[in-house]
Design brief:
CATH class: Mainly Alpha
CATH topology: Arc Repressor Mutant, subunit A
Protein name: MarR family transcriptional regulator
Region (Disordered): 1-20
Strand content: 5-15%
Distance between the termini: 35 Å
Pfam families: MarR_2
Organism: Microbispora hainanensis
Number of helices: 6
Order of helices and strands: EEHHEHHEEHH
InterPro entries: HTH_MarR-typ (IPR000835), MarR/SlyA-like (IPR039422), WH-like_DNA-bd_sf (IPR036388), WH_DNA-bd_sf (IPR036390)
């Protein structure tokens, strides 16, 4: 049985569903439920910092440096017009800037301003800290094994 806490966090065990049975269904169900938890944490942290979850996600993605619009569109799963609107709103707030692409003068890359970099680092650190708390009672070896497995899933998805 699964219950939902006041913060929207699902608790309970992952069980098989009509789309599969056994371990595969339990794994997929756990991932879906975990994605909801991550979304709730993004929403809570974003609200506390006065940005939307989508804006927070953009800032976090830019923490490692400028990214082109095409790549951002792919990473954020947004159509070009939606991404342009998102970037416009964050740019008006002084958190990002458009910079010329070094090899293609028709294209631009999105870069964090100093204010955006500070906020992006804060948001990312706070989201990670809140998610890390969820597993703090697990043995360290289990946490490392789960983290390694999930990074493998992410790598397979992004390639």
């Amino acid at each position: 049985m699964t219950t939902t806490t006041a913060t929207g966090t699902a608790t309970g065990t992952a069980t098989g569903t009509a789309t599969g049975t056994g371990t595969d269904a339990a794994f997929a169900t756990a991932l879906v439920r975990m994605s909801h938890v991550v979304q709730y944490v993004f929403a809570d942290v974003s609200r506390e910092h006065g940005v939307t979850p989508q804006q927070a996600q953009l800032l976090c993605m830019l923490n490692d440096g400028p990214i082109g619009m095409t790549e951002l569109s792919r990473l954020l799963h947004l159509e070009k017009s939606s991404l342009t609107g998102l970037v416009d709103r964050v740019e008006r707030r002084g958190l990002v800037t458009r910079v010329s692409h070094p090899r293609d003068r028709r294209a631009c890359r999105i870069s964090l301003t100093p204010e955006g970099a500070g906020l992006g680092e804060q948001v990312h650190a706070e989201i990670c800290a809140r998610l890390d708390v969820l597993g703090e009672e697990m043995p360290e070896a289990d946490r490392l094994r789960i983290a390694t497995a999930l990074m493998g899933v992410v790598a397979r998805y992004t390639t």
